[in-house]
Amino acid sequence: MNCEGAISDERLLQLGVCERCVEKTETLKNWDQLLKVLKENGRLYFAEEIFAFHRKLKDFSLFFKKAVGQRMWSLQETWARRILLNSNFSIVAPTGVGKTVLGTVSALYFAVNGKKSYIIVPTALLVQQVAGKIDLFSQKLGVKPRLLCYHAGLSDSERKETLEKVAHGEFEILVTTERFLVNNFDIIQDKVFDFIFVDDVDSFLKSPRNIDKIMKILGFSDDVIAAAFQLIELRGEANRLKRMGKSPQPVLESLERLRNQIEEYKRQNKIGLLVVSGATVKAKRTKRIRLFEELLNFQIGFKPEFLRNIKDFYLEAEGETEQQVLSLINRFGGGCLIFVPSVFGKDYAVKLSTFLNANGVRAYTYTKMDEEMLEKFQRGEYEALIGVASFRSPLARGIDLPERIRYVIFTGVPRMEIRLSWDEYNPVKLLTLLKNIREFLEPNVQERASQIINILRRVLPVSKETVDKVKDAMERGVQLEGFDDYVRRIVLETKSFLREAITPKVIEAISKSREVSLKQRDGEFFLVVADPVAYVQASGRASRMFAGGITRGASFILVDDEKAFYSLKKQLGFMLGEFSPIKFSLKAVEKWFRGIDEDRRVIMEIREGKISKRLKDFIKTALLIVESPTKARTISRFFGRPFKRKIENITVFEVSAGEFVLNIVASMGHIYDLVLNEGFHGVKVENNRFTPIYDFIKKCRKCGEQFTGLDFCPKCKSQEYYSKKELVKAMRKIALEVNRVFVATDPDIEGEKIAYDVYCSLHPLNKRIERLEFHEITKKAFLQAIKERREINLKMVEAQLVRRIEDRWIGFELSQKLWHRFRNYRLSAGRVQTPVLGWIIERIKESRKKKRVLSAVLSNGLKVSIENPTLPFPPYNLKEQLKNLKAKIANLTTEERTLYPPPPYTTDTLLRDASAKLGFPATKTMIVAQDLFEMGLCTYHRTDATTVSTVGIGIAKEYIQEKYPSLFVPRRYAVEGAHECIRPTKALDAERLKNLVSLGLLRFPKRLTQDHFQLYDLIFKRFIASQMKEAKLLYQKFRVLVDGNEAYMEHPVSIVSEGFNRMLPVKTANPVEEGEYTITFARLLYMPAARPFMQGEVIALMREKGIGRPSTYAKIVSTLLERNYAIERKNRLISTALGFKVYMYLQQNFGKYTSEETTRRLESLMDLVEHGKADYNEILKELYQEILEIRKA
What we know:
By secondary structure, the chain is α/β, with parallel strands linked by helices. It has 7 domains: 50-219 and 270-296, P-loop containing nucleotide triphosphate hydrolases (Rossmann fold), CATH 3.40.50; 309-414 and 532-612, Rossmann fold (3-Layer(aba) Sandwich), CATH 3.40.50.300; 422-513, no CATH class; 619-792, Rossmann fold, CATH 3.40.50; 796-848 and 1092-1192, Topoisomerase I, domain 2, CATH 1.10.460; 850-900 and 1032-1088, EV matrix protein fold (Sandwich), CATH 2.60.510.20; 907-1029, Topoisomerase I, domain 4 (Orthogonal Bundle). The strands form 10 sheets. It has a 7-stranded parallel sheet. A 6-stranded parallel sheet has the order 1-6-5-2-4-3, sandwiched between helices. The longest helix is centred in the C-terminal third of the chain and has 29 residues, at 794-822.
């Protein structure tokens, strides 16, 4: 942390400095004492920045406390830390947590330190309020900064005087509304502010050009701003080229040059600091909005949409809907939003408003953004606002009034109508139609529909101008140019597809659907489909974040369409994780409303400053570290739309998750690995103690080689590489900002080692580091893991160390032996891969032995195989003798058998079936399964447990009771250990998953491919089958005799009682009868005595023999293939001559070190270390002696 030299984990966990900087740290109690010693020793280096930061934070904290009269709350301290670290950022936080106070005190702090600040607020009233705060705080601090305020309440002479002072720079703090930038920018455009605080970003963005102006007064030149716009254009061009299937490389090179030019300008010039308060609910990601990303490395924040604390009630629509709505409002009072289904439109909203007003309820139809009406609603002048239930509705999207909005009424199930016609030119409408009819198409047509859906998505968004050009060109039969013609061709293809796909059979299938209605009007058909997105957005207005958590709210649905309601429940269940609306009960509703009103009372008290600090400090900040960007995106999307910022070129996803504001970073796997050039193959050995030496992992930018300990790539000698050191720097910077650090790496020893590395790296800067463990990436599992966070399991870390060191030692020593013997430096050996190679070789030997098989077909269709038959004629006469051959079926018996379903998948059984049924190599299966896990679709895939959790049983119950109501039989398959089987995380089969992805209701960080769907289907069916009733089948057993040769046969012939076979079909044969039959076809085959292994079969054998682990199965097989010890033909593993030579050399010279028995014993010892039953140093001692013996041999 200080000299950036080598340091032990023990010293990192003390104060973070090595022995060279400070010999003894036991007597040092704090940063100040450490700073003093480092200065005295002349050893103060990089830590000086950290000490300076802590001094500033201490000064600012005292400054804040003196100004405000109390200490900062957790969120305020996080924002203050960011400001002191000179980070631009967007504050997304609820009302009442002190955003404006923090911005105001920060401006004062900059002013006292001789710097200029600018505070921009939405209204003249707020200008005066902020100015009043600055005056009050200044008095308490005993300072007199030059403060200028400009607002509508000033007299003409005051305005003139203020403008003159602004023009001459006679101020330290300037406070204005955003209109000042619009009207008076000319007098401040030559100023460069050190700190700018924008309060209420939506108000600020009403004039989009304000963004350009802010950039100018932060210190960016016109040329750099123009370069940033050009960079944004180039990013768009690169995306367009990708969508058209063309290479964007030349554009990307230009883009990189511009990016470097902008970064160089920022290094060479003084750039101010920008903090934007509030989240936008309106702004689109325009070019100007993206200036924040390109120049200041952060995105404007968005309101969290999936944090909801709502009770969803439903009641049947009876009689006059207007009367039911009136009754609800009369009973539960004001603070209500009313949404009418989009199929009824604005006219019905106006009609309802008229009815309510006529009956004493002050209501207003809100069809466009209207600040005045919102203010009247907030003051209680209106009891209800009425809008259309659509995700585009301003009432559903643009309102955030937690203290006023208590509940929402839907006058019907939110739904929309889609015209069932191919007579359309707009890609958006074509996509909407295709998404909604895909599941009703013929199975062979669905795949093509999915392909067209993906193509349409790639061309969006499309401007109205392009749509008009496409329509005109198609009507005139002419072509266009560039991207416009690309869109024209796709529209043409889609229309042609729809013309053929929409058949009477499809229309009939739609009409019979449980979820979609079909209506006919004016000779045209319309689909009526539920609109779950509209429901989530609209109902979410009644449940918003505040300083005490998430407000309670209520939603009432008047059910007027059973199909749409059924579909809404199903789709929201998949979107939200769970959705179970409650039938209206007055007692239950009134009880819930007492909580709703309690939350509103607390919000008002917060606004009035009456509430305790404990409640205001409810929300904390945390750094969350996961392995991959996919996992980071999946978790962040649980809570709405995350926004990004860049720190040290590392992407950070920020999202509000209720109790915590999370900053999510991906470690991209391990951070450190053993070095090559120190100690005994990277391990320091002293007095029978073993200390592994780790360094940052580096990755060559040219060839992708991963290495440690060197400043150049050992493979291609390039000095251009990426080091995980940059990642640790970024994580340390964020660790300085936040209250806590959570490490949510995978739940195995590799994940635990990464967690420990993070713990050691960040501990000097943040002591509150905790481990999160979850076996499925769902919102529920994640929130539960936060509640059950724990310390790092050091025994698991030790087990990983033993595995890594053993792998390094034996691998290096045996590999060097191979290099010397074969003069080939690509060769390698390992303790597990050697016996596995031996199995493949032995199986190939077996496959070379042949057996003779008579394969025959009887006149009743029965296929018979008889091994090593004795025939009274030469084999070549078989065809001539066929007419003389007879077969007899005898000793026929029939019995009923009970078949039980197989248990859910473990890693080895999944690899075996994916290999056999899908033809997937083991490595591919693990990569696809990793994707499914990280996208939250299946549980952790590295497991040897078949155990099914209560959650898993619940998923199976939900699916089976809907599809096969009488066949659900819960089974635990419990085995010892904390892991669970591989299973789906939702009651969602592969076809339903495809449909929801097509509809856009389920979105994932990566595109789901056919491989994903195939493997998911395998996992889903196996798991669901495991929770189904056993099947009863009728079996026949009999003998087949052919000219003195016989075969015993048995096969199922019918299903007596249905069970798991509904998910995993059991193939039945035609029943046979005793008697004599002619042979219609026969041939003699010379077949291998045993077939070569498939990858999955080898892995199943590894599990059976107790060598290898779920995390290493696939790697062992892929290494054998990479080293050319084996090749794969028709999904079968064939040993090579090289593999045979290597194996024989190792077996003859080092057999006792690589035998199955030795390997199995070592695996058991490592398991003992993991469970705290063996000392890892003692095991390393034994291994070390063994390696020395190998070295001597």
